[in-house]
Amino acid sequence: MKKATRPEEQSSQRKANATTETPSKIARILAHLLTGASVNRFEAERIGDHCLPSTIAVLANHYGLTIERKQERVPNRWGAPCTVTRYSLPPNQYKRARAVLVALTCKPKGVAA
User: Fold this and answer.
1) How far apart are the C-alpha atoms of 105 and 86, rounded to whole Å?
2) Neighbours of 93 (CB within 10 A)
């Protein structure tokens, strides 16, 4: 039989989880683009984004980043060609993108660790 968790144990578990949270999918995609790499929807699956166009829309519309888009033909899961968009970050957006990434990955002030 499993023992009940004491309140102080629950509190320490929450603290541990707060410091080990993984970055959001928006932060992961932005960090990827900041390396100079580009990404399409199939490649984004490997870094945990199942709806890349929505993530790109948030980066562009909510955070004001300019994202370059280029259409390309790639094989789908069954080998048939399909058209997807390849997204990249122009170098003139890197400074702003780094500031956005810091805001996405830093804890707000006043939050206990």
Assistant:
1) 25
2) 19
pTM of the model as a whole: 0.74
Could you tell me how far CA 74 lies from the centroid of its own chain? 23
Helices (H), the chain: 7-19, 25-34, 41-45, 52-57, 94-105
Q: What length does the chain have?
A: 113
Mean pLDDT of the chain: 85
pLDDT at 17 > cutoff 90: no
Cα 41 to Cα 45: distance, rounded to the nearest angstrom: 7
* Nearest-angstrom CA–CA distance, 10 and 32: 35
**So what's the pLDDT on residue 23?**
79
Query: Which tokens in the block code for residue 88?
Result: 């990249």
Distance CA 32, CA 89 (A): 10
